[in-house]
Design brief:
single chain; 95 residues; mainly alpha; elongated
């Protein structure tokens, strides 16, 4: 099932997994990325539910927080170690 989803989201994943340099990966980075994704997705859902009936401007934070949360979850769950390290800026060459 994971391979199926990796195939579907491969255009996005390739952006973060394309680097060939050395990287520093820690398992805690993946855990924090998933927790952050859950937090931002929940925040987007909360803003969406509270913004109903108000000005349409509430959709901007929904898009920003929802996009950040979904991207974090995508990289955290399906991404390789290199993609997680790239999100955190943990490349050896970046130091």
């Amino acid at each position: 099932m994971k391979l199926l989803f990796r195939g579907i989201f491969s255009p996005i994943l390739k952006l973060f997994e394309s680097d060939t340099g050395d990287y520093l990966y820690k398992k805690s980075h993946r855990v924090v990325l998933i927790v952050m994704g859950i937090f931002f997705t929940g925040l987007a859902s909360l803003v969406y539910s509270l913004g109903q009936g108000e000005d349409i401007i509430y959709i901007i934070p929904v898009i920003v927080f929802g996009g950040t949360g979904l991207l974090s979850l995508l990289i955290g769950i399906l991404g390789e170690d290199r993609a997680v390290a790239k999100i955190w800026g943990s490349g050896i060459n970046n130091r």
